[in-house]
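anyone else get weird line breaks when pasting these?? whatever heres mine. first is seq + tokens for prot A
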Amino acid sequence: MSKIHIPTPLRQYVGKQASVEVTGATVGDAMNALIAQHPDLKKHLYTDDGKLRAFVNLYVNDEDIRYLQKEATALKDGDNISIVPSIAGGC
């Protein structure tokens, strides 16, 4: 099993949990398992055509999946996946 860490703004869609345990061989599999358990999350993480939204960053054990194999990044038991929404702003 892997653990997906949920950022505070999205916790309302997962029963206020800070993390959710899922199974999956890849990051994509794990995210699909998360969405299967908590379908209300999908619109916040994915576009209508099923692509991860540009402002949603995923990390496996502190490694950005964009620099690995993206959603095809392999997982091993005990890996931690963090959902990190981008924050923009300022003047």
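and prot B, same format (seq, then tokens)
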Amino acid sequence: MKIFNTEKIQLFKKALNVYDKQHKAIAQNVAHAHDNTYRPVKTDFSEQLQTAVAEKLKKTDPRHLNSRGPGEFPSLEKTRERVDLNKEMGALAENQIRFDFVSRILSRTYKSLNTSITGRTT
């Protein structure tokens, strides 16, 4: 039904999925914190958004500017960094707070729909 498939509800569901993916990535980093050969998984998914936007802004003419302005994109050198356990645990706590917040909002949205449909406030 359309009533359960509104833009707001879809946004909340997508947010919960993103926070779930971040939680799994952070947990993987924490699990491998003492492995010197392990490279941490990036948990900042804003880069994925930037990549998606950049893919839509393709150059069709060599005279066009890149999405970041003139010049070429900087090379992304892979550095050998270690897992910072304090940073990861802080990110995990922040992610948990955000997940809880969105899940409470989604729960309240469904409760208000239930109240509207049934007429009961239980």
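btw re prot B: The radius of gyration is 21 Å. Residues 7-118 form one domain.
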